[in-house]
Design a protein that fits this description.
Number of strands: 2
Distance between the termini: 49 Å
Number of helices: 7
Structural class: mainly alpha
Shape: flat
Radius of gyration: 28 Å
Strand order of the largest sheet: 1-2
Order of helices and strands: HEEHHHHHH
Helix content: over 70%
Length: about 210
């Protein structure tokens, strides 16, 4: 027992200690988080000050660049949700087909190997994954994110071409209208996301 403790404890090697150091690592993570928050705050202040020094046209172009980053963020999230949904659906379909085969023509083969737990385990997997898809709704979340990204991209295109609602507007008016429309879309996206999450929580509570 003593031998194990002696070898498990931190040892000196080249002037450095090795071991778990959970508390020290936790403190480092907290310190790093605080530094990131401070840098983010400084970046926002500098960005606000820089924006005030820019012309309306430059502010509009800067805002469009920010919107492109927002679009890419929405698209990445939408792709993750869609990928998760399709992966789960493929697993569900494969397991369902395998369960059907086991309970029909391959029953004797299963009994020979003595693995009677295979069919119940696959049935449980199908039920569990189906419940996860219904509860977290990755398909709907991905669709809403992609729809918002497409709508913002379309709004930017209309603003660049000065068509539809942007016809005859100067740069300041285009900037104002674009910001209003985009922020409205992002607000609606957040509301739809919250509705899906609330619906999932309600369904989980009732079950």
């Amino acid at each position: 027992m003593y031998y194990w403790i002696a070898h498990y404890s931190p040892v000196e090697y080249s002037g450095k200690k090795f071991g778990f150091k959970g508390i020290d690592r936790f403190k480092q993570l907290i310190s790093l988080k605080e530094e990131i928050e401070q840098l983010d705050m400084q970046l926002r202040v500098l960005k606000t000050y820089q924006t005030k020094l820019l012309s309306v046209g430059e502010q509009l172009e800067l805002y469009k660049d920010e919107l492109l980053q927002v679009i890419q963020k929405y698209q990445r999230k939408a792709n993750r949700h869609r990928g998760a949904f399709f992966a789960l659906q493929m697993i569900i379909i494969a397991c369902s087909l395998f369960v059907g085969s086991l309970t029909s023509g391959l029953t004797n083969l299963i009994s020979i190997f003595g693995n009677h737990w295979v069919a119940p385990a696959l049935s449980f997997t199908v039920s569990f994954l189906t419940a996860m898809v219904t509860l977290f709704r990755p398909r709907e979340k991905g669709y809403n994110l992609q729809q918002t990204a497409d709508a913002i991209e379309y709004e930017i295109s209309c603003a660049n071409k000065h068509i539809y609602g942007y016809e005859g507007l100067d740069e300041r008016q285009v900037f104002t209208k674009l910001a209003q429309e985009v922020e409205k879309m992002r607000n609606e996206q957040q509301k739809r996301q919250q509705q899906l999450e609330q619906a999932s929580e309600t369904k989980h509570t009732t079950e």
